[in-house]
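Input sequence (148 aa), recorded before submission:
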Amino acid sequence: MLNLRKRYICRANLSKTRNIMEEKDPIHIEGTDDTPNIRLDSRHNTFEISGTSNRADIGSFSNLILGWLDHYASNPNPSTQFTFRLDYFNSASSKMLLDILSRLENMYQAGNDVVVKWCYKAENQDMRTAGDEYAEMVEVPFENICIN
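Predicted structure, token format:
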């Protein structure tokens, strides 16, 4: 029952895509068993994706995030620090993450101050390796940070 409630909350937030993109309102989505926590808030300079991303149908979720980032990139903050704190992600999510990083790379190449912080737990070497691989794929300042 609780899991269904969380999914309902996430779907309710996804239905607000148009208003979020028009107003650059923050996105705050609580994670579920297969959806990560999302915090995109330009007013408080908070940009973070954390938890587990294991959805097979990531399309609408991805479109929400990428649409928001596209809008944000048109007038970004003086400095953007985007933090990833993922425990696990599937191949569908991998594409979404690369799309996010590509948008951050575009912002950086346009002369904006952008830093990616890829945080992983010491025991999760898969996430460390993923961070290393993403860092090689994009040209944006990238920090791999081991957390306990």
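Checked by second reader. The longest strand covers residues 79-89.
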